[in-house]
Amino acid sequence: MTKVREIMSTSMTVVDDDASIEQAAVLLADSDVGALPVRGAKDARLKGIITDRDIVVKVVARGKVPSDVTVAEVATLGLVATVDADESVEEAIETMKRFRVRRLPVVEGHAVAGMLTQADVARSQPEDQVAALLEAISS
């Protein structure tokens, strides 16, 4: 049984909840990713996730100034689907299907340890599992 830690992306960037949207956008661009885990600036705990789509829809499309808006104002905070680094990949896939997400922050305790992405699953799992995941999150 493959564990999440064996296939997750570990070279990832995290953004603090008090950072500006401009700073988050730069981190997304520099890291060439579509989402960043959000951690509390005061306690370093996972608080949520922010996506490039959040920035476009909630900031740019509404004419807000990215340097004047914080990540906490835009990100999905609170109840965020996560997966433990020691869970099986099969359990993680079921979580991705249930919540219809392409990315899952991977945690160890309260700390962010990595990110499990649809691409990580596609590279490591049998075609039937990948197809079922794609179907579940795309429909």
CATH fold category name? CBS-domain
Distance between the termini: 28 Å
Tell me roughly what share of residues is in helical segments.
40-55%
Oligomerization: single chain
Give Rg in angstroms: 15 Å
* SSE topology string: HEHEEHHEEHEEHH
Order of strands in the sheet with most strands: 1-2-3-4
Protein described:
The chain is α/β, with parallel strands linked by helices and 139 residues long. It has a single domain, classed as CBS-domain. The protein contains seven helices and seven strands, in the order H-E-H-E-E-H-H-E-E-H-E-E-H-H. It has helices spanning 4-7, 21-31, 52-60, 71-74, 89-99, 118-124, 127-138, and strands spanning 15-16, 35-39, 46-51, 76-77, 83-84, 103-108, 111-117. The protein has a four-stranded mixed β-sheet with strand order 1-2-3-4. A three-stranded mixed β-sheet has the order 5-6-7. A hairpin with a 2-residue loop joins strand 6 and strand 7 (111-117). Helix 5 (89-99) runs parallel beside helix 7. It starts with a helix and ends with a helix. The model has no long low-confidence stretch (mean pLDDT 92).
Question: Which short descriptors sum up this protein?
Answer:
single chain; 139 residues; alpha/beta; CBS-domain; 7 helices; 22% strand; globular
Provide a quick synopsis of the model.
With 139 residues, the chain is of the alpha/beta class. The chain has helices spanning 4-7, 21-31, 52-60, 71-74, 89-99, 118-124, 127-138, and strands at residues 15-16, 35-39, 46-51, 76-77, 83-84, 103-108, 111-117.
